[in-house]
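User: Could you go from structure to sequence for me? I need the amino acid at each position, not a summary. Structure tokens:
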């Protein structure tokens, strides 16, 4: 770990020497950050969280207590990972091969979860790789995501399905005339063929 990074690492945390921890980031009690993981600036890794080898986090990400972020996950800036969330990495998990021999790291190819800027994954949700969570989307607590999630989508259920749209504030958007509107910021969005786009004032 870069000793000049100005990071706060609890003595009980296990941070690999080759991990990169950005300035102002915090790694709390009993968390583990594996080899070659990269954390941006101002990230927070909660108690007992796991960050796998080579996982990349952008700036200002929050990974809450006991979340498991397995490689090769990529989190862009401002991503929120709730308590006990799991980002998987094995499409066909098995402890042993068909002949009964124990599988090694060379017997499977990890696949990752990609989470785009500003998205949030609620407590105990599971994202089954390979999937991509779009910008500013919200996955409700306890959901199981098995397919790609569009930007600004509000997802819930097992398996997760879209039950609405959310804005950058995280609040559910309200339909008004031909737009979707954030009740907090007043920002407007248009929906075309199941895709939400921000309306930019001229």
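Assistant: Here is the amino acid at each position, in order:
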């Amino acid at each position: 770990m870069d000793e000049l990074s100005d990071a706060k690492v609890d003595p009980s945390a296990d941070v690999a020497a080759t991990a990169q921890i950005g300035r102002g980031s915090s790694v709390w009690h009993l968390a583990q950050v594996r080899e070659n993981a990269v954390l941006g600036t101002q990230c927070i890794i909660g108690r007992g969280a796991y960050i796998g080898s080579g996982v990349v986090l952008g700036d200002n990400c929050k990974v809450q207590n006991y979340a498991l972020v397995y490689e090769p996950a990529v989190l862009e800036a401002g991503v929120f990972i709730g308590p006990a969330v799991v980002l998987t990495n094995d499409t066909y998990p098995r402890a042993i091969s068909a002949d009964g021999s124990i599988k090694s790291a060379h017997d499977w190819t990890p696949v990752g979860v990609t989470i785009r800027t500003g998205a949030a994954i609620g407590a105990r949700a599971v994202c089954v790789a390979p999937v991509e969570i779009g910008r500013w989307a919200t996955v409700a607590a306890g959901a199981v995501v098995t397919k790609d999630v569009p930007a600004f989508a509000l997802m819930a259920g097992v398996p997760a399905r879209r039950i609405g749209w959310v804005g950058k504030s995280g609040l559910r958007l309200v339909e008004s005339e031909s737009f979707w509107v954030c009740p907090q910021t007043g920002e407007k969005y248009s929906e075309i063929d199941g895709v939400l786009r921000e309306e930019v004032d001229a």
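One structural detail worth keeping in mind: The chain has no helices and 26 strands.
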